[in-house]
Write a structure and sequence with these properties.
Length: about 475
């Protein structure tokens, strides 16, 4: 989904809310119209787009200028919050789209945060540790007046991790002596005030949203006669098929695209799950797709990835990893014959040209925006179950909230408390979305997520008197 797709969907869903007399019945006529026009305009525009460039001296003494961004989309629900991405695909449009998705995600999960995002146009694997340290510190120097524990709180995203957050926190502390610095960033190392379990939180949450949908929700809520005809019924049938597989102890075939922070954890969760039996037949990263009919040895791949920062991509490397697999091109994973496909890499993986080749019945958006707007509508109409990004990948920000709270009250939560809280909140949000979607026959799972998020954002804008 591009920024244009996201904005078009916001406009569409605001129009539906406007036409729904049961939402805000106290406002009607011209005033109602004006309030909805104002809120649509506010939510399809970003509050602030900051573009800068970071000057880095490379190890070979060359000087490089690297574009860097911070987009603050909206803070009606609380302080701006959103990750910082290091990637060679970063652009202003991409960062803005991700910032809008953060506003919607935080509203959907009822977190007291608005939405923001940052990005730096670098491919981290082409830079040394010293160079990455320099880039991280310079990012804080450039954006220091715009970030802070009660204004805009960054976290890791693609290409960044707890080390990046620790460096950034250290730089923020140096620039702002005497100020609360721990709450300025989340996703830090545990040694530096991070929450236990934060590193795994997004991947765990992604997996949990899917497992909960199949193993808890679908069991009691997908009886054919209670489901509206059309896509809803096809989707319910796909979910029932997975429940039947689980009951017969037949493995569910699952593939995971992307093997970084989110993907490797989601793959491990599927591999080790006691509740649903899985065969993780394929995983991929930027360089390769690995496939094994009987299932891949995920723990060995995780340990190879920890040392080499990528999956094995040649016969020799597979041998070194002790893993048996067939080797395919990276993009091959999207169209593999599996029951469930988890996206945990980059945007725009299902597009017009490959949408009809997707074989998985359940698609889980661990990555942000992996499915293009038109392809998304096609998949829905053809009965695929898509668990949308703003619902599925919120585990990270849910735990970030606990980290931010813990840094303010200086009381540490245990890992069990952190993960139990995250899973409980994921379940509440999933229950809200799937209950309304199947129960009320709403137009798509993604539309239901947007409607729930927009109801909250509209209500806050209305209560704060921002719509006149
Ligand atoms: P990461 O940098 O740790 O890993 C990214 C993975 O994707 C790597 O394995 C990389 O090789 C792979 N990849 C890159 N391009 C690819 C391609 N074209 N095809 C296949 N694989 C490709 O990043 P991450 O933190 O795991 O984030 C992955 C996705 O999850 C991103 O979309 C990110 O926005 C989203 N996300 C992350 C978090 C978080 O807490 N880290 C939170 C919410 C959403």
């Amino acid at each position: 989904m591009s920024i244009k797709d996201t904005q078009a969907l916001i406009e569409d869903m605001m129009q539906r809310l406007y036409e729904d007399d049961s939402f805000l019945p106290e406002e009607s006529g011209q005033t109602r119209k004006q309030f909805f026009q104002s809120s649509t305009e506010i939510l399809t525009t970003s509050d602030k787009i900051i573009k800068s460039s970071i000057r880095v001296s490379r190890d070979n003494r060359e000087i490089e200028r690297i574009p860097a961004y911070r987009v603050q989309h909206n803070n009606i629900a609380g302080f701006y919050k959103g990750g910082i991405r290091f990637s060679e695909l970063v652009s202003e449009e991409e960062v803005e789209n991700l910032a809008v998705l953060m506003t919607l995600k935080n509203a959907l999960h009822e977190l007291p945060y608005g939405g923001a995002k940052g990005g730096v146009l670098v491919q981290p694997k082409d830079y040394s540790v010293r160079e990455l340290n320099m880039i991280s510190k310079k990012y804080v120097q450039r954006f220091t007046t715009d970030i802070g524990p009660t204004h805009d709180i960054p976290a890791p995203d693609m290409g960044t991790n707890e080390q990046t957050m620790d460096w950034m926190t250290g730089e923020y502390k140096t620039i702002n002596p005497g100020r609360n610095y721990l709450g300025a960033f989340t996703g830090k190392s545990v040694a530096n005030g991070g929450a236990k379990g934060r590193r795994e939180a997004t991947g765990r949450g992604v997996y949990h949203s899917y497992e909960w949908l199949v193993d808890d929700w679908a069991r009691g809520h997908t009886k054919e006669e209670s489901i509206p005809e059309g896509p809803h019924r096809m989707q319910a049938a796909h979910l029932r098929k997975l429940v039947e597989k689980a009951d017969k102890k037949e493995p569910i075939r699952i593939a995971v695209q992307g093997f970084g922070n989110v993907g490797s954890v989601a793959a491990e969760m599927a591999y080790h799950s006691q509740r649903l039996l899985h065969c993780v037949t394929a995983v991929s990263d930027h360089g390769v797709t690995l496939y094994h009919r009987e299932g891949l040895d995920i723990p060995s791949l995780v340990s190879y990835q920890h040392t080499h920062h990528q999956l094995p991509s040649t016969e020799e490397e597979l041998q070194e990893a002790g893993v048996e697999a067939e080797i395919f091109r990276p993009e091959h994973i999207v169209t593999m014959d599996v029951n469930v496909l988890i996206f945990a890499a980059v945007e725009d993986q299902v597009l017009d040209h490959n949408k009809e080749e997707v074989k998985a019945d359940v698609l889980v958006e661990g990555a942000n925006a992996p499915i293009d707007g038109a392809a998304d509508r096609w998949l829905h109409e053809n009965g695929k179950v898509v668990i949308p990004d703003i619902l599925a990948n919120a585990g990270g920000v849910l735990v970030s909230y606990l980290e931010w709270k813990q840094d303010r009250i200086t009381q540490l939560f245990t890992e069990e408390e952190v993960l139990a809280d995250m899973e409980r909140q994921m379940e509440q949000s999933c229950e809200k979305v799937f209950g309304s979607y199947f129960g009320e026959g709403l137009s798509s799972i993604r539309n239901t997520c947007y409607i729930e998020a927009l109801k909250r954002l509209f209500t806050l804008l209305y209560r704060h008197g921002k719509l006149f």
